[in-house]
């Protein structure tokens, strides 16, 4: 089992690592390691049986030097203040590495949504939106979906905010349904950037994604879309997993068939004539490409020694602990870091916000083409920095690019009050 590295400590370590390769004042780096503010609140919600339940919830606004705070809202029983702070910090550096004019934020509610009815989840979401209202806004802080939240929750938050503010403000949140001001291409944007990052890193390594064997941990929004798009590029997805277990077929899985099976049964296990694996067996499979697309800390130091993949593209945020990163670097496993690989989500959220502000919709083609341009340019910039510095791996190179941009924005604004 993976260790439970504190994700906030992991973020700070990643920033310190990058600081070693940057000409940055230690006090400026220190500022960039802490959130500007964290809202912690307890939501009292009426359940269907008439009783009340209290849920802890957080919103961290990490850094706004490059633009409004931006980041998803997660519903999970394991949500903690430190996790939310870490995720909000990763958003800052993600937006910087792909040059989206946003800062970083993140939110979460400590809840297992599977235990509650839709009506209870609506009351919970609206209660959170009421608490968030003074802190968010189209030019202030713009939430989005994350684990266990999607269009439904985003529509409820938008509706609550607009009703209380007596206005229309579709740009207050992204990841909405199309009819509520969402963008074409948003649902699959994270998986699409993972596919693009995989294609670019294989190309850089003079390898082909066609015929590459692929394992995907986590078959939710990000993981299942990445699997499908990589299959379309000719990749062979041999193993996938979710919280119920992992399945393996050396001849390649039909990714759409697995997605249908999961929709019908709630799990990937039991699909077709596949072999069942444990989660750790999936993560250590001998494949060309491994995609962790579940939660943080999936690969810790001890598991990293057993990783057999040549390349890892991080769809999840923070799936590799810093200690595991050092092992993988030593083993010459190339890791495309989360802050670039899964940046498609926030990039198309940004496109959604731009469309909302202009009251003008883009076609799906335009969205996908613009996304491809952003990811390819960011990847090229990352390689340039990796080649021109002595950074040990792609993650540190990505943070060097990102931290420099955020530090410049901070210094240009000056420190006030
Ligand atoms: P999701 O809820 O749609 O999917 C998560 C999947 O992970 C589910 O299938 C779940 O069963 C599985 N899972 C959970 N624990 C697991 C375990 N121990 N082993 C195997 N599978 C496990 O969430 P998502 O939106 O796809 O997010 C997944 C990751 O991608 C998160 O780290 C999230 O922060 C990141 N991410 C998502 C987006 C987005 O736009 N959705 C954007 C950027 C990053």
The proportion of residues in beta strands is 15-25%
**Order of strands in the sheet with the most strands?**
9-8-7-6-10-11-12
Q: Tell the overall outline.
A: globular
Query: Which small molecules are bound?
Result: nicotinamide-adenine-dinucleotide
Helix/sheet category:
alpha/beta
Order of helices and strands: HHEEEHEHEHHEHEEHEHEHEHEHHHH
Q: How big is the Rg?
A: 20 Å
Which segments are poorly predicted (pLDDT under 50) over 5 or more consecutive residues? none
Number of β-strand runs: 12
- Roughly what is the average pLDDT, rounded to an integer? 97
Biggest sheet descriptor = 7 strands, mixed
Distance between the termini: 46 Å
Helix tally?
A: 15
* Helical percentage: 40-55%
Description:
The chain is an alpha/beta fold. It is 45% helix and 17% strand. It is built from 15 helices and 12 strands. The protein is globular, with a radius of gyration of 20 Å. The N and C termini lie far apart (46 Å). It binds nicotinamide-adenine-dinucleotide (NAD). The site of nicotinamide-adenine-dinucleotide (NAD) has 24 residues, from helix 7 and strand 7.
Descriptive terms for the model:
417 residues; binds nicotinamide-adenine-dinucleotide; 17% strand; five-stranded mixed sheet; alpha/beta
What's the quick description here?
The chain has 417 residues and is an alpha/beta fold. It contains 15 helices and 12 strands.
Please outline the helices and strands.
Layout: H1 7-19, H2 26-31, E1 37-46, E2 52-63, E3 69-76, H3 81-97, E4 104-110, H4 118-132, E5 141-145, H5 151-165, H6 189-204, E6 213-217, H7 221-232, E7 236-242, E8 245-248, H8 255-265, E9 275-277, H9 279-283, E10 289-292, H10 301-306, E11 311-313, H11 322-330, E12 334-336, H12 338-341, H13 344-358, H14 364-388, H15 394-413
Parallel strand pairs: 3-4, 3-5, 6-7, 6-10, 10-11, 11-12
Antiparallel strand pairs: 1-2, 2-4, 7-8, 8-9
Helix pairs in contact: 1-3, 1-15, 3-15, 4-5, 6-7, 6-13, 6-14, 13-14, 14-15
Bound molecules: nicotinamide-adenine-dinucleotide.
């Amino acid at each position: 089992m993976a260790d439970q590295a504190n994700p906030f400590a992991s973020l700070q370590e990643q920033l310190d690592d990058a600081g070693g390769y940057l000409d940055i004042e230690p006090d400026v780096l220190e500022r960039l390691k802490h959130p500007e503010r964290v809202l912690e609140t307890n939501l009292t919600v009426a359940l269907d049986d008439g009783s009340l339940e209290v849920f802890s919830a957080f919103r961290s606004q990490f850094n706004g030097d490059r633009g409004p705070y931006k980041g998803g809202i997660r519903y999970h029983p394991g949500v903690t203040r430190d996790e939310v702070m870490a995720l909000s910090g990763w958003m800052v550096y993600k937006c910087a590495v792909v040059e989206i004019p946003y800062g970083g934020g993140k939110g979460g509610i400590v809840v297992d949504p599977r235990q509650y009815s839709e009506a209870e989840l609506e009351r919970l979401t609206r209660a959170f939106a009421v608490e968030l209202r003074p802190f968010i806004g189209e030019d202030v802080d713009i939430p989005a979906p994350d684990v266990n939240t999607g269009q439904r929750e985003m529509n409820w938050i938008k509706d609550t905010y607009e009703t209380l503010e007596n206005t229309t403000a579709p740009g207050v949140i992204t990841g909405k349904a199309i009819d509520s001001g969402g963008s074409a291409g948003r649902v699959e944007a994270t998986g699409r950037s993972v596919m693009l990052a995989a294609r670019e890193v294989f190309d850089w390594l003079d390898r082909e994604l066609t015929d590459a064997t692929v394992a995907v941990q986590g078959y939710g929004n990000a993981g299942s879309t990445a699997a499908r798009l990589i299959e379309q590029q000719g990749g062979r997805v041999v193993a996938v997993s979710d919280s119920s277990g992992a399945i393996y077929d050396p001849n390649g899985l039909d990714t759409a068939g697995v997605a249908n099976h999961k929709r019908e049964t709630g799990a990937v296990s039991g699909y077709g004539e596949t072999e069942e694996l444990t989660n750790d067996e999936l993560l250590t499979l001998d494949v060309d490409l491994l995609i962790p697309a579940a939660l943080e800390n999936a690969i810790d130091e001890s598991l990293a020694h057993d990783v057999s993949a040549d390349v890892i593209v991080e769809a999840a945020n923070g799936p590799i602990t810093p200690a595991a990163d050092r092992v993988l670097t030593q083993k010459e496993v190339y890791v495309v870091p989360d802050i670039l690989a899964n940046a498609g989500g926030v990039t198309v959220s940004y496109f959604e916000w731009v469309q909302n502000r202009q009251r003008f919709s883009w076609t799906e083609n335009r969205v996908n083409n613009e996304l491809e341009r952003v990811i390819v340019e960011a990847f090229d910039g990352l390689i340039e920095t990796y080649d021109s510095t002595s950074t040990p791996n792609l993650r540190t190179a990505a943070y060097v690019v990102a931290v420099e941009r955020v530090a410049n924005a901070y210094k240009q604004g000056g420190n006030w009050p």
